[in-house]
Description:
Elements: E1 8-10, E2 17-20, E3 23-25, E4 30-34, E5 37-40, E6 44-45, H1 49-52, H2 58-67, H3 69-115, H4 123-162, E7 170-171, E8 175-183, E9 187-194, E10 199-206, H5 209-221, E11 236-240, E12 243-251, E13 255-256, H6 257-264, H7 270-289, E14 292-293, E15 302-304, E16 312-314, E17 321-322, H8 340-344, H9 347-352, H10 357-374, H11 385-397, H12 409-418, H13 429-438
Amino acid sequence: MCDLLSLEFSMESSDSEIVDIGVLSDGQGQVRWDKAGIKPVGEVKRKPLDDIYVTGIEIGLEKLTCKSPAYVESWRHEFGAEIDRLQKKLMELRSEVDRRRRDMQFEDWYIQRTLTTGDMKDPMFAAYIQTLQEKYAGNVSAFEAIKAKLRKEEKKVELFSVTAFNELPLLAFRYQLKTIIGHGGNSVVWEAYDTETQQFVAIKISNKIHHAEQEYHNHEMFLGSEHTVRLHGPLIYIKHQCNPYSLMIMDRMECDLNQFMENRKGPCELALARHILFELLLGLHYLHEKNMAHCDLKPANILLTTVASAQARLTDFHLSRPKSSTIIVGQNASPAFAPPEWYLLSTTEAHTQSATYEKFDIWAVGLIFYILLCNQHPLGTQSSKVDMTDRMMEYRNHPQIYFPSYIPRDVQELLKQCMHIDWHCRPTTKQLLAIVCYK
């Protein structure tokens, strides 16, 4: 298996041919893929998108409209109904957030008032106050979680309202768009029906072509593992409303780990959490054996083939890089799942102290396992980068993790190892697999 960071293609044919996604050679040079993307060694140029693919996918809409205007209207009606459903869900979430905020304000007032009525030297009174404070802390975590869910739904409604594809039921003459199922900074993931294979697929539409190419090539490296999402063919390039887009077609999974936990409305049983951890480690170990790190592990990037089987598949490799690479402090990560060193080190310190992405991934594994078992973030928040920075500073000074009483001691030790403040002390995927398999 070739390492894509040093992959070279030698061109011997005299005719122009596609040697990589969207890259053509005139037969006189080589093409090299490195960290910066595709770079020409000889005289290599990218063929204009208009010449390779459909000039505009508006043509697809025009053809479909001529053939079946009733379907177009039906699709638009369904799309509008989905927006209405999301708006209603959003209103319910906002009401729930307001209710919980009022409840927490009352709880805080009650605790402060109760403190003035007794003596903390009295063991019974102190125990009662501790119970109130623990309950309050749990409610704060739940409040932060529902606020995060509200922000996610607000973003989804916004995407539905402004998407450039809300008038286009047929994409690239083949894929019938159904609904938005995910989104990132530069992309939106749609559920779609493949009219050729008559199967549902997921389509990641990106307006950052270079980023999409980087992700696609990273993803290709990991297709040898059954624990990564399967791709359907090469990247597809299109233009819509004069803007270029790339389409990455993938298997449609039933849900991601975020949705799985939301639907459960509570922690996983220990056996189920161990099973999902094992599946996650198998996929991550494959990456690390390829000397690559995922660099953005989080529940949204762990998909389940079905809820019943809970078979995990890794996806979204746009940030993946060599596992021995020094972390980029404060950049290119999901803050809620980034480790303390990502927040607290300087760039120079990260380099001199060998803070690598391999151990960056292990921290995220610990967080995800904790969330599966406790249904909350171990540091009590998944909110802003500023809040997380404060929590990380507290954790560095007092590296304590709260464990509910039902978490076994050996599981607590495993979590402490994964979330060790010193990244050098975190185990490897091989060591974690040995522990999980043994148990």
